[in-house]
Amino acid sequence: MEHSKTTWDDIEKLGWTKRQVFAKANQERGETMENPDSDIELNGNKISADWVSYNALLGRPILLRTMGPRQGKTITVMKTFNNLEKDEPLFSSPWSMSWTEKILVEITMTRSPSIGLKGNIEINDVASTGLGISFPVDKQGPHRREQSCSRHHWWPVRVPPRRKVTIIMTVTNRVNKESYAHDFGLLKNSSMVATQGKPFDGHQRWGLDMNWLLDSPKGKLEFDTVGKTEKIEFVKISEDPHGIITEEPLEIPPAEATETEVGQDMKGEPSAAVFVFPANGAQVYD
């Protein structure tokens, strides 16, 4: 996975000025550094091009709060078969219906990262819709993904003598909202700052692990998610001559959903390469 290289401006936004980093590095090197402008280097090539530092997302998204769900229903009479005032024998009439159910998820960044970042954030179940999304961290959004399920089915409707049968369609719209935070900082085990000065422990140049040196500085971005689902159900209502009503749901066989619009596909995020350094977070270079 590609990462953005760390700049001194990034480090300052994470809470450390260049002079503070120099002072901390100088302390770890036994006060052997002299010039804060030339004796410390971040992603340069004057001291060493081998020591580099990268920005990265850290961990997984953290759920802050949930709002909802809000739910609304629309009930529509689709068809009525009236045999209530007749003594005709039972008759059957096929009834068919075509419809589409949809799931829509949307993500909007509400607090953008303060440092340069690359990569995607992945949410496996956006706002309890069952639909996931992966979106680029360097884009404000909104990022959308929509999944639809087009259906067609028919039912045999049987109407006994002196009965009335009504088919009802219920459309349930549900909206859920969730807010998340995600930490960012320096890529673990892969972010080094180059230093030089008088010999320290036998070496003039040292590469120091930035997370070890600066106590793993972090920032936080935030984003809101919205999930909208639409579910359609059918009910058969039977009424006898005495006004007694019975309800029976019409069974709907399962169907596979299809993507009708994808803001960002679900994509796995490859693991970053891991390099093991000494316990004190330092590398030496002569």
Overview of the molecule:
There is one protein chain. The chain has about 290 residues and is mainly beta. It has one domain. It contains three helices and 13 strands, in the order H-H-E-E-E-E-E-E-E-E-E-H-E-E-E-E. It has helices at about 10-15, 20-30, 210-215, and strands at about 40, 55-80, 90-110, 120-125, 135, 145-160, 165-185, 190-200, 205-210, 220-240, 245-250, 260, 280-285. The strands form three sheets. Strands 2, 3, 6, 7, 10, 11 and 12 form a seven-stranded antiparallel sheet that branches. Strand 10 (about 220-240) and strand 11 form a beta hairpin. The longest helix has 11 residues, at about 20-30.
Question: What is the share of helical residues?
Answer: under 10%
Low-pLDDT residue spans: 261-286
Q: What is the gyration radius calculated from CA atoms?
A: 31 Å
Portion in strands: over 45%
Number of helices, counting only DSSP H or I runs of 4 residues or more: 3
Q: Give the overall form.
A: rod-shaped
Mean pLDDT: 87
Number of domains: 1
Q: Can you summarize the main beta sheet?
A: 7 strands, antiparallel
Q: Structural class, from secondary structure content?
A: mainly beta
Separation of termini?
30 Å
| N-to-C series of helices and strands | HHEEEEEEEEEHEEEE
Number of E-state strands: 13
